[in-house]
Design goal:
Blueprint (H helix, E strand, L loop, with lengths): L6 E10 L5 E9 L22 E10 L2 E9 L1 E4 L3 E4 L13 H11 L4 H8 L3 H15 L12 E10 L3 E8 L4 E7 L3 H9 L3 H5 L3 E4 L3 H10 L4 E4 L1 H34 L10 H18 L2 H5 L7 H13 L1 H16 L5 H16 L4 H12 L1 H10 L4 H17 L5 H11 L24
Parallel strand pairs: 2-4, 7-10, 10-11
Antiparallel strand pairs: 1-2, 3-4, 5-6, 7-8, 8-9
Length: 447
Amino acid sequence: MLGVNEIHVDDYRMEKTKYGEDKLVVCVRPYKRLRMRCPVCGKKYSGYDHKGEIKHWRALDFGAVIVEIEAETMRVDCPEHGPLMESVPWAFRNSRFTKDFDLTSSWMARTLSKSAVAEYMRISWGTVGRCISRTREFLEPQTDARLNGLVRIGIDETSYSKGRRYITTVVNHDTNSVVWVHANHGKKVIDEFFSSLSEEQRASIKVVSGDGARWITDAVNEWVPQASRCTDPYHVVSWTNEVLDELRKEAWREANSKVKQMKKEVEPKRGRPASDDQKMADYAKAKEEAKEIKNARYAIGKAPEHLTENQQTKLEMIAKSDKRLYRGYLLKENLRLLLKIKDPQEAEAELNHWLSWAQRCRIEGFVELGRKIKRHKEYILNFIKTGISNARVEANNNKISLLIHKAFGFRNLENMFDLIMLTCSNIRIPLPNRGTRYQKSACTADI
């Protein structure tokens, strides 16, 4: 019932906790061949002490009853690691909980908030983080193994707290898993990632995707010059949408200024308002156009196939009333569509045409955007050739943001990194007493 093999059960007793809860204490001792082993190397040595010490480990509850394992342990005299408390078969090193308890708490932490896990498992908020770290260390002792055989990777940063606190993640596109995570962002962080790789590991990398950050480009050129640097199309379109939105705001300010001027003519502060019906009609029309431009952010930002009927009407009105804003919309749509072209030569020709159009469109924002895209032209074409974008990286960033949000933050970054490595990968946390029907979804690690 404890889920622990190779132990002798000597006794058990029922007690009450200081909070009045029922507690079952099970007195056990491991098999003799498992005694006096170093918890680090697992080798058997003589005892360091002459007398043992009684210790307790929390096990999974029996229904509503708290369960503890009680055993006498001694320190072993390991010549390599020094005097350490002997290992026990039911718990990880430096843990006062059974393995099943740690694994179950970590499994719950991937879905529930740490506060909910702490309340249900009757442990502290900080203990949940330590359970996560022990589980990660048990299921994947060497995370460096993820760095072997990297071919196509994606790099991005994401915020984990207020105050511009970022973490940088590296994702393997082939396995859709996070292979490396580190606090902060910038070239120094990426330099640390590439410096941790061997020459053979760096030589195997063929494609690196990311946003338009210069520090990613500089690091790629320095460490993996043979790799194709790909600029994510999502960020290219987002640059265009930012310029287009600024153009919309500028158009609205001009339209609103025109409306204010016309209002002075048709609605003077003193005297009777103008009785000219044409002026009143022009004023009403200008006011309506200014309102439509103000509320047209989503109409001009969305793809035409996703527009609602009302948004299509707004777009048609802009096409008639503001040629400059509509020209910016056409530039945005043309760029978005050419990024979907599969033929690299055709895409390069269309991109050259777009760059020429942007330089002579007489819209300052798009002229500057054309220069920026020209600097990233090679990386955009690399995306079209390889088909590798940062979509999987952004998806993992969404998972990370959700984990942080559900946990209500992390005080220990290592606990957060361990939970990210457990969640954003193909690792499955095994749960106790799961039969063959769960083998496909469970980890095959020997517990």
